[in-house]
Write a structure and sequence with these properties.
The protein is an all-beta fold. It has one domain. About 5% of the residues lie in helices and about 35% in strands. The protein is built from one helix and nine strands. The strands form two sheets. Strands 1, 2, 3, 4, 5, 6 and 9 form a seven-stranded mixed β-sheet that branches. Strands 7-8 form a two-stranded antiparallel sheet. β7 and β8 form a beta hairpin. It is globular. The protein starts with a strand and ends in an 8-residue tail after the last helix. The N terminus is likely disordered.
Length: about 140
Amino acid sequence: MIQQCMDKNTSANKMTTEIDLIGIYKVESGKDVHLIELGIKTNHKNIDIGEFTQEQHRIDRLNWQTPWDEKFLNDSGIKIIGDWINSPIDNSDFTRIVFFLHFVDFKKPLSTQFGNVELKTVKEMPKRLSNLIEYEKP
């Protein structure tokens, strides 16, 4: 599902960024945590992963859940090309990213700097990811 998300810094008649929710996956080794995989039609340098969160009523925004242990993947999603410490050297206008998110509320969208992304169906984690990414508690 590709969603057009309006960049918060643009007006309605300017270009939008496309976000593809590739999947939300169960994490067998973690309780109350899911792996989220997104394809974003922009260069990784334009993404502020700290802006990805879910609203939590009556809780200060500084305490909302944010991505944990994010990884940048190649276009086919089978190789890690960067992480929160080491940026990818890829300069394309497409970013594939995975990250863990704790206490996901499926009634609320994922808020990003580009707009909201509806979180829907949870799937089993594909082998390409389960062989590549391991959950470690924060």
